[in-house]
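To the structural biology subgroup,

Please find below the input and predicted structure for Beta-glucuronidase, which we are adding to the shared reference set this quarter. The sequence is reproduced verbatim from the submission form. If anyone notices a discrepancy with their own records, reply to this email rather than editing the shared folder directly, so we keep one authoritative version.
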Amino acid sequence: AAASGSGGVGLCPLLLPVLLLFLPGLAAGPAGMLQPRDTPSRERKELGGLWSFRADLSPGRDAGFAQRWYRRPLRQTGPVIDMPVPASFNDITQDPSLENYIGWVWYEKEVLLPLRWLQGQPAPRVVLRFGSAHYYSIVWVNGVQVVEHEGGHLPFEADISSVVQGSPGTLCRITVALNNTLSPHTLPPGSIQYMTDKSRYPKNYFVQNIRFDFFNYAGIHRPVVLYTTPAAYIDDITVTTTSSDSVAVVHYQVSVVGSTANSLSLSLRDQEGKVVAAGDGPVGELKVLSPNLWWPYLMHENPGYLYSLEVKMQAQVGGVLLEDVYTLPVGIRTVHVTSTQFLINGRPFYFHGVNKHEDADIRGKGLDWPLIVKDFNLLRWLGANSFRTSHYPYAEEIMDLCDAYGIVVIDESPGVGIKLPESFGNRSLQHHLAVMEELVRRDKNRPSVVMWSVANEPASELPPAAHYFKTVIAHTKALDPSRPVTFVTDVNYALDRGAPYVDVICVNSYFSWYHDPGHLEVIPLQLTAQFENWYKTYQKPIIQSEYGADSVPGLHSDPPMMFSEEYQQAMLREYHAVFDKKRKEYVIGELIWNFADFMTNQGTTRVLGNKKGIFTRQRQPKAAAFVLRDRYWRIANESSCLPPVITSHSLFL
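Predicted structure (tokenized):
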């Protein structure tokens, strides 16, 4: 549901594009990105809480670099405020200039490290990891630059062992410079527009233009952790699975860094702790007899079954025998796409789910455990079996619960708002390829992830879109041949130049809302024609990846009028009638837009954000939530292998 908007009023960031795009540094490399876990050989120290914070309000947004704020405690450079991490900084204060700030902001945290992290022969490896920071990050430790990373929504890390182990004492001062400027070549793209009419705008006035319909929250959005590994360590694990009724095979590949492993052993344990398969060596297969397959929620009485793969490595470093242990959750499941079906473990799967946002009052896009758990309880109350990570990768903590609860995920990149011709050039393409590498590297082992989405609503009718999406999709398939790849389109079937390269057609449409507003009677004809035209052209299964209507909670109208709760209900029912006909043929899913109301830029069509949620931003149900709940539980009972006594009250909470 992309739309153009603007935000970010302030002084002209004259030097900002130079700093943003050309500052030299240590880019995040192609190493593994295993999620930090406590194991017998690894420790974690979470750095959440209050950090020191300062926005660079200088005319060029460059004072922090010119004055080298990273060389000394941030409080010595000027006024600082407390800023919670993880959280977006925009809604934390009463300062309207920070709400819409564009440019460099600075964070700092001082932590004491355990002595055992700094001593030993060899000393352990100490790693600093950010779950995500939006958008462009440069990180220093004790005044030494350790990593630079472009892009929000994905993790990055740096080995800081040489910095902290070479410093006197145990104090570790972490400084982060963070820039939320979006350009035509970032992902998502945007542009800075300078307002030069002095009769209408103050001197040096500019806005950040974006072409997506959610607020461009910024800050350190996900947990920051320090963790240790031995000097020789398990760097990456890749797992794929195949199965039949009686036997499953877990194919694995393990990479080790720091030394050649003396021994490498693997044990696969079930949920009772019993070893069901074992192996050794960096590449191999584990055979599991009578496996417990990973099933989606409402397809099995025990959804989301996870085994534990324990990997142990021993290596000789400097005459000392080191051991590293890492445990990876593993779900055994297969995915296959035909011309009319999406199969999980050989059975047809119908996506009845939602689109979401990482968005909430005050914290913005900051990770919040109570909100996460509430959302999953609402998903299961609703009878939803799936969601798309619209329009960016979600936190690993959310993905962990999808794996554990059996919630199926279409994992989407931040490729939203790709509208301008210059955003299809080689510079943008290379960055998009790098982002897909980071996303696949992070989520490749997750059973909940059944399909990659490389973009949402791009201008795929433009001529360069053909080469662009052919390249991005081929690259993603090369990274992970085990999953289908798609992107989400709102372009006419006859004009879309990227659609030939997807495995599943995902189409967004808002009949009687953005088109023929108020005319519910056109939905049956237009939606039926949409499905039939797409299928006739491509012979690929189709997901209605977005549909919906805004509703203001408590606004009622009969007959239904736009923005009333009744109109939202009526639109859903018109769409559902067509879905019920076409899901007998080649429609394989429906994802409502949206799970909950969310914040956007200010505009004449947005009253404190987008109101297409079936829940309010505070997670209270609108009337449409009950329409969708009744439908999803009915579909679940039609297709489930469980007894028909399942009701919307019996499986959870």
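Summary notes: The CA atoms of residues 74 and 211 lie 35 Å apart. Residues 43-180+216-229 form a domain with the Jelly Rolls fold (CATH 2.60.120.260).

Regards,
Lab coordination
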